[in-house]
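Entry 14. Structure prediction run on the chain below.
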Amino acid sequence: MEHKIFLQLLSDFIDDELDFDLSDEFERELEDEFCCCFFNTFKKTVELCHQIEMQEVPQSLHYKIIKTIEHTGSPKKKRKNKRK
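Output returned:
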């Protein structure tokens, strides 16, 4: 299994949402040192994120963030010059 595919399946594996065959294949990939280290780091990160206590932010800050996001938008793509 390529590392790219491994990364795509990682979340589903942790959430126990992979079918049996894919789950077995994924577990075999954990024998690879890179995959094993990445998996353990990812799993620990998820665990730590679940432990974070949610904090309320001031309403004014919330609106400023939303407004900034709305006005920032995605960067415009430059058109390629079409030569004839």
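Residues 3-71 form one domain.
Filed with the rest of this week's runs.
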